[in-house]
Automatic annotation (TrEMBL):
Matches recorded under PANTHER family: EPIPHYCAN-RELATED, OPTICIN
Source organism (scientific name): Leiothrix lutea
Region (Disordered): 82-114
Subcellular location as annotated: Secreted, Extracellular space, Extracellular matrix
Key words, A-Z: Disulfide bond, Extracellular matrix, Glycoprotein, Leucine-rich repeat, Repeat, Secreted, Signal
Name of protein: OPT protein
Keyword set includes Signal: yes
Gene responsible for this protein: Optc
CC terms in the record's Gene Ontology section: extracellular matrix; extracellular space
Signal peptide, first to last residue: 1-22
Gene Ontology biological process terms from the UniProt entry: articular cartilage development; bone development; collagen fibril organization
LRRNT domain span: 127-157
Coiled coil: none
Family of this protein: Belongs to the small leucine-rich proteoglycan (SLRP) family. SLRP class III subfamily.
One Pfam family this sequence matches: LRR_8
């Protein structure tokens, strides 16, 4: 047979080794290719923001409302350039008012009383650094906030759930005339100043469940939905006839509080009233229906929950004649 010289064998071996080395190198380049950092948005679940007031009653079983309280924007238009990524650690950002030279803004000592609201920035830069701004919506869920951040003047929807906010001050929403929804669920809010929400002409939804409130502030007449479940609100914490002038109110949910009676009068617009798990023992026969008008029918008010209260509803047989269905409770 023909013998190959040692130099020929060396060439063949080099070629084989080069081929084998090329495959791992290609895989290494693929592995080294940088990937988009999705952790910036790991706390944001936009699937929770797709329910509107218009289709609310059609999609949800009103009697099961407490288990489904993630609400959606009314599909705001998202423009290019409005996305401000949420930083990895908000603690590393400068405080509002801190200079570029690093001089920190002086903070008042704890226990010094109410802190005046921060000025509203022209472009909303502070809140859009701490939170995520999409169009006119500001998402501040689980951002470690201890107070309401300064918001852009055109804010329409604010989500600041799962934070450590302790109070709502009268200046927190000054000038936000387009604000339609405020969601402060699952904070530590123990008080809200009387006029904290009163001057918001467009506010439709105020969501305050799972806080430490003992009283409700004044409410704007534009309100459609109020959710203050799982607080410590007693009847003394409600203003007299607190809901009488809320002619657009459809959903009033005050379950799991410390109410002694049903807050009356209730507006004719009401569709859903949840007062379960309170301390209600009695009620007036005119609470829901006008006893002087036996022909009255309140077709809209079809969801009333009074279960978990000491009241025996069978003692008030004439209190429900105008309702399309009996309340849920003890008979």
């Amino acid at each position: 047979g023909v013998r190959m010289c040692p130099l020929g064998w060396l060439g063949v071996a080099s070629l084989c080794l080069g081929t084998l080395w090329a495959v791992p190198a290609k895989e290494r380049r693929k592995a080294d290719k940088p990937k988009a950092d999705l952790s910036l948005y790991e706390n944001l679940d936009l699937d929770n923001y797709d329910l509107t007031l218009d289709n609310y009653g059609e999609i949800l079983d009103l009697s099961n409302y407490e288990e489904l309280y993630d609400y959606g924007d009314l599909v705001p238009k998202i423009e290019v350039g409005t996305l401000a990524p949420r930083p990895r650690d908000p603690k590393t950002l400068p405080e509002l008012g801190e200079t570029t030279a690093g001089t920190p803004k002086l903070q008042p000592p704890s226990g010094a009383g109410p802190v005046p609201a921060a000025p509203i920035p022209g472009q909303g830069l502070p809140s859009c650094q701490l939170c995520l701004c999409l169009g006119t919506s500001v998402y501040c869920d689980d951002a470690g906030l201890e107070r309401i951040p300064a918001l852009p003047a055109d804010t329409t929807y604010l989500y600041a759930r799962f934070n450590r906010i302790a109070a709502v001050r009268s200046g927190d929403f000054t000038g936000l005339e387009k604000l339609k929804r405020i969601d402060l669920s699952s904070n530590s809010i123990s008080w809200a100043e009387a006029d904290a929400f009163r001057s918001l002409p467009s506010l439709q939804e105020l969501l305050l469940p799972e806080n430490l409130l003992t009283a409700l502030p004044e409410l704007p007449r534009s309100l459609v939905r109020l959710d203050a479940r799982l607080n410590r609100i007693g009847s003394a914490g409600l203003r007299p006839e607190a809901f009488r002038d809320l002619k657009q109110l459809q959903f009033l949910h005050l379950s799991d509080n410390q109410l002694d009676f049903i807050p009356v009068p209730l507006p004719e617009s009401l569709r859903s009233l949840h007062l379960q798990n309170n301390k209600i023992q009695t009620m007036h026969e005119d609470t829901f229906c006008d006893s002087q008008d036996q022909g009255q029918i309140r077709r809209g008010l079809e969801d009333i929950r009074l279960d978990g209260n000491p009241i025996n509803l069978s003692l008030f047989p004439n209190a429900f004649f105008c309702l399309p269905r009996l309340p849920t409770g003890r008979f």
